[in-house]
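Field notebook, page 357. I keep forgetting to write these up properly, so this time I am using the form the group agreed on. The chain and the ligand, calcium ion, are recorded exactly as supplied. Prediction of the bound pose follows.
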Amino acid sequence: MRILPSAGIALAAALLAAGIKPAAALDIKRAEVKEFIAHMAVADGFKKRQLRKLLKSAQSQPAIIDAMNKPAEKAKLWYEYRPIFINERRIREGAEFWTAHRQALDEASIKSGVAPEYLAAILGVETYYGRLTGNYRVLDALVTLAFDYPPREKFFRDELEQYLLLTRDAHLDPATLKGSYAGAMGAPQFMPSNYRRYAVDADANGHTDLWSDWPDVCASVGNYLKEHGWNAGEPVLAEATVAPEKAVDLDGRKLALSETVGSLQAKGVSFDALLPPEAPAILIAADDLDGVRWRVGYNNFFVITRYNHSALYAMAVFELAGAVKQRMLDNDAAAPAPASPASPAPPAPPVSPATPP
Ligand SMILES: [Ca+2]
């Protein structure tokens, strides 16, 4: 979420291997740290002494700052970015994940209206279906960015506060949880504020666990997308062509749902419009090796970018979702038919009831 963890983790590891500056314990005598502690004591009822002890144990890590300065989706073009996520291994593991967690995916899909392939694809892009959830202590990541990364210090101080509230309320140990270099946690890589706001205890076992409780993981991703405006059954994206005399204000590089199906058509964009003219839409320029490929994103495309503010990210989720779903269909088709020579049973429906036809 927000930051691509797999690319970021690799980058951070490379920087560490290259001998970038070592980590250092947080100096809790710094004015901004004292101010933060005082705020937490007054606003949230924390004991100052406990906070000092915890924050003193945190390591500020220069490698985290270096990783923050170079997120993969800002540096890469679509044709460079796509193969990181759309490849045989991620498709195969997606089908394996779906097979292993079919019930959790189906239940989350019915509840949220988000088709299971999109829930799986987000987990696939974020953490390889929960396999790579990050090896930084969340405390170190948030402390580093809250106090040693001025461009985003307000955001990360808020997230650090949310993290301390989350771990207090959920009886988790704030010193041991692990996550990405940005402090994103679990299979869906929720930042602490989103964990508190959108995570769901779907199996009602009393714990909302985004690392290994798969009903919780799947339901939380569905809940996040639903709360950000996902429309059940609607398409995500259509391939498009743009007339040479297209309106000059359309470059396909602004991430805003500021057009409609009708306005794009009026400006010379041709696509298979599956929604009515008044439906919100966005034109996307995808850089292929041989030039720009045009695509039109609908509302649900924009909703995916609320998970990570990048059109590249949403296109990767869209394509991975389609590829994993197709792999499931292919696997089902290849499975041996049940032995019944008189009247062979039809194959089981490969998709959940929540998947639109
Ligand atoms: Ca649970």
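OBSERVATIONS:
- Residues 3-8, 349-357 have pLDDT under 50 and may be disordered.
- The beta strands are 24-25, 59-60, 136-137, 178-179, 237-242, 259-260, 269-271, 280-288, 291-298.
FOLLOW-UP: compare against the apo run.
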